[in-house]
Amino acid sequence: MKEPIISISGIRGIFGVSLTPENIVKYAAAFAKYSNRKKIVIGRDGRMGGELVEKLIETTLLFCGCPVVNIGIAPTPTISLAVETLKAAGGIAVTASHNPQEWNGMKFINSKGIFLDAAENARLWKYFDNSSDFFVSADKIKQIEYYPGFLDFHISKVLNISSLNLKKIKSRKFKVVVDCVNASGSKIIPELLERLGCRVIKIDCDPSGIFTRKPEPLPENLKRTCREVKKNKADIGIVIDPDADRLVIITEKGEPFGEENTITAVVRNVLSKVKQAKRIAAINLSTSRSVDDVVSSLSGKLYKSPVGEINVIKKMKAVKAVVGGEGSGGVILPEVHYGRDSLVGTAVILNEIAEFGGKVSEYKASLPQYFIRKSKIQLENIDADSIFRFLKKKYSGCKQNFDDGLRLDMDCGWANFRKSNTEPIIRIITEAKSIKEAEEMQKRFNREIADFLK
Q: How far apart are CA 109 and CA 99, in angstroms?
């Protein structure tokens, strides 16, 4: 039996192959033990097979003596918000995020409504092979509560963001094409848009969990959605990943707005609404320099963390940032809760575009222009650390940062090489002022690494 991937991002595996009833029960029981048999919130992203995983987790938690709150098909940020609001001991989101259809997994949430950090994960992992003695007798089984209405609470929290100009957003009457990949955002995102006065055209907003395209919201996977935006003469396209923590925008021309520009636009909007002393943001080390430029233009302060939602959140808390996120389209606004949230991103982006007054493509042109390119190296039978040592030595003349893999800062741009938390790969991210420079950097690094590995 193949083993699932276990990382700071939780558990992910192929349904029925590396994610099996046996290990689902093992991991759920371990989390019950970690949570000391206290209340646990669960929910799922809606993908096929997810209901079976959810029922196994639900039953296991009950067998361990935990009270359970099940909020059903819901975005991961909604589950996190429920944990915090209901004062639960923790939560489990049944999701494989942007992984393909055959994958599923479990994300673990602590009592504060945020993902477990490295130390918390280490404590949890100790129970993975030592939880079979934690089951209780029938008289100690607790109750289960089904709470599907929590989606409405999440929407209300977003609509009450202090910086939103709801009147201005509604007056624009945005025509929006929304693509929720038939997963957890299929109900909540269109409803939020309608309550923001938008005319909504739905694509793949049936929470069947059947993906009609590759689920990661990358430009190459969104060609049909881009065509629909143009065909319907929509003002904007909104695309959500399966667990609805990432937001991708499409311009009225049917062209990608750019994942990196999502966080740039949100940071600009949020910081512009607060006093200068509070203009503090935090992002990860692989996020575009355009955020640096925007924060600088507003005389704010910007801090950076290793990649990973929990790392950004910890940095945000440490520096008291009012906004943060990651360049993959993940927006974090503490006013709602600490966690990447596509609902927050959607509302703030529409607020920014409404106040800008022009078209989405015109707004994009007003942002600092950088170009990011990404690739990956498969790590089967390859020592990742040897690649990092090679690059460190070869580029010893560059400014180097080792907080998250290896980051090289050069006059022409920057590059970051890091091991993925969720896949056996090294990600290579390059950014420059032109597409040509960013692509040339990618080609050079891939060629040099390939030659080194020969």
A: 19
Residues in the chain, pLDDT under 50 = none
CB–CB of 24/56 below 8 Å? Answer: yes
Cβ neighbours of residue 336 closer than 8 Å, sequence gap 6 or more: 81, 157, 158, 161, 344
Helix (H, G, I), strand (E, B) or coil at 236: strand
Mind listing the pLDDT tens digit for each residue in 65-94?
Answer: 999 999 999 999 999 999 999 999 999 999
Cα dihedral 162→167→169→171 (10° resolution) = 180
Cα four-point dihedral sign 167, 169, 175, 181 = negative
Q: Rounded to an integer, what distance in angstroms lies between the CA atom of residue 43 and that of residue 148?
A: 9
pLDDT at 422: 66
Question: What is the phi/psi pair of residue 262, to 5°?
Answer: -60, -55
Query: Which ranges constitute the DSSP H helices of 320-383?
Result: 342-356, 360-366
Number of C-alpha atoms within 13 angstroms, CB side, residue 338? 23
- The residues assigned a catalytic role are 97
The second-level CATH assignment, the architecture, of 371-453 is 2-Layer Sandwich (3.30)
Q: What is the rounded distance in angstroms from the CA atom of residue 36 to the CA atom of residue 350?
A: 42
Q: Where would I find the beta strands (DSSP E) of 90-241?
A: 90-94, 103-109, 144-146, 175-179, 199-203, 236-240
User: Selecting from 3.30.1120.10, 3.40.1010.10, 3.40.120.10, 2.60.40.150, what CATH number does the domain 5-152 have?
Assistant: 3.40.120.10
**pTM: predicted TM-score of the whole model, two decimal places:** 0.92
Rounded to 5°, the CA angle 288-290-291 comes to 85
Q: How far apart are CA 261 and CA 418, in angstroms?
A: 22
Evaluate whether 5-152 and 371-453 have a shared fold: no
Helix %, strand %, coil % of the chain (to 5): 40, 25, 35
The CATH code of the domain at 173-366 is 3.40.120.10
Give the start-to-end residue ranges of the domains of the chain: 5-152, 173-366, 371-453
235, 175 in Cβ contact below 8 A? yes
